[in-house]
Amino acid sequence: MQHVIEEPGDFVHYINLDRVPARKRFMETQFARAGLNSAHRIRAIDAGQDAALDQNGYVPGTGTRWGLKRSEIACFESHRLVWRQALERDAPAVAVFEDDVEMSAGAGAVITELLRNPSEFDFVKLDYSPRSLRFGAETTIGSIVVRPMLEMAPSAAAYVVSQEACRKLLGWSESYSDHLDDFVSLPRPGWRMYQCFPAVGVQMIWSASQTEVEAPVAASERTQDIKTNSGLDKGPAWFRVRRELRAATRKLYWRLGAQTRLLDQGGYVGYIPCADDLKV
Prior knowledge:
- This protein is α/β, with parallel strands linked by helices.
- The chain has one domain: Alpha-Beta Complex (Spore Coat Polysaccharide Biosynthesis Protein SpsA, Chain A).
- 33% of the residues lie in helices and 17% in strands.
- It contains eight helices and twelve strands.
- It has helices at 21-33, 70-88, 107-115, 163-172, 180-184, 215-218, 221-224, 237-264; strands at residues 12-16, 40-43, 93-98, 101-103, 123-125, 133-135, 139-141, 144-148, 158-162, 193-196, 201-203, 268-270.
- The protein has an eight-stranded mixed beta sheet, with helices on both faces. A two-stranded antiparallel sheet has the order 4-11. Strands 6-12 form a two-stranded antiparallel ribbon.
- α1 (21-33) links the parallel β1 (12-16) and β2 (40-43).
């Protein structure tokens, strides 16, 4: 069922730290380039503030990793803020951006079409990932070409998520120990996740335009802060061994014929193509 979206910007959000106004300016420019007249700024949780993480859902060992850095917990909790607000506003779907995403001029049309069809997906990733990945056969959501995501992706800086998906994500993340990227792209039963083909966004760290933007946009201030990125605990030996065994099992599955079958069925293995006006 298609929903009437008179102003898509009402359902577009970007997460930004108060102390990095250069990224706010950058994203405003990107939204204008994409043809979106407005977007809602979400005040990011600042891991540099001592009390900012007094209450959160991080519990070591409950997810794909054991320990998380303060900056990673703050990032996760900032996304949870958006999901919660989407439910409170009864939004059928929302688009979520981090504040360093270069956008294609066609991104606004893609987002608008996805927002009109929230019953057809849980999660649609809009951005490029800096790693070869596996995807299912091409399909469409409305008029937008997508492929099912079959494994975790190392980037989730731009995505559209349905209201029901926000409810699922909030429930699943009552306890977590995952990078946000891993968490939202973890294959789960009933989790309908797709990648936009081609990608209509790319984080500046991967963009060929990196040298053309202000320094705070080109490199993450969050990850360069020693205070918020030290003391990572990789967990006890049993947890690390279990994680390695699971990774080895996945690799063996694909090598023993699954990847060949995937390609025979119209799947795709490789880097996500980008829109023509984005370069990586």
